[in-house]
Design goal:
9 strands, 25% strand, 5-stranded mixed sheet, 215 residues, alpha/beta, Arc Repressor Mutant, subunit A, 8 helices
Length: 215
């Protein structure tokens, strides 16, 4: 689904978050390597774009309004997601000379590995990581052959030939949804249970159990 236009740029959102964290436009500008007038202009442009007041400006400085505080909180989530994206794509384009070679099943690589890579980069910024994706059998094969240092797979049990540790415990989730009244009546007449307007759809394992495996 296309994003609505215009959208605020990440640099402006990052600057707003820094104002909230550091307590002033001056400190935020210094942290971002820009002048205070340039930072003020960028923040005013962000206010015009969003059509809300983000800062209370006074002779002693500026602070976030309640709307600005909420916006900075949401912006922090956007920036975190972008850092996750950058960490994940950096690992995908890394070559075989990386210091840590990872392999992960598709679901784990999509939903879990980017966040782990972001945390790794924050603590070990000099570690170069590469990532290859495939099904669980392919991941186990690459670890067994020595083509990957560490693999992440999903399934009901770990591979028997590799050392492994449970990384994510599986959770059982109940799936349900609202139905059209006519469909709900038909389901109830057929024996489907549940409150009016709702239907029980089934169970699925959320997370499925993710294992880290090594040779």
């Amino acid at each position: 689904m296309p994003l609505p236009e215009p959208c605020p740029d990440l640099a402006s959102l990052d600057l707003l978050v820094s104002v909230g964290e550091l307590g002033s436009i001056r400190a935020a500008a210094a942290a971002h390597g820009v002048t205070q007038p340039a930072a003020s202009m960028r923040l005013r442009a962000l206010e015009r774009l969003l059509q809300i007041s983000l800062l209370e400006r006074a002779a002693t400085g500026a602070r976030l309004t309640p709307a600005g505080t909420a916006t900075a909180e949401w912006a922090g989530a956007v920036l975190s997601a972008m850092r996750t994206l950058l960490a994940g794509t950096a690992a995908l384009r890394s070559d075989g000379g990386s210091q840590l070679r990872l392999a992960a099943s598709l679901t784990v690589a999509e939903y879990l590995v980017p966040r782990w890579l972001q945390q790794l980069a924050a603590e070990y910024s000099t570690t170069q990581v590469s990532l290859e994706m495939g099904n669980s059998a392919r991941v186990a094969e690459r670890v067994t052959r020595g083509d990957a240092d560490l693999g992440f797979i999903e399934g009901p049990r770990p591979p028997g030939s590799l050392r492994s540790k449970l990384a994510i415990k599986p959770r059982l989730g109940c799936l349900g949804g609202l139905l059209d009244d006519r469909v709900a009546r038909a389901r109830r007449s057929a024996g489907t249970f549940g409150p009016s307007g709702a239907s029980f759809l089934g169970f699925r394992w959320v997370g499925g159990g993710a294992y880290g495996c090594a040779k």
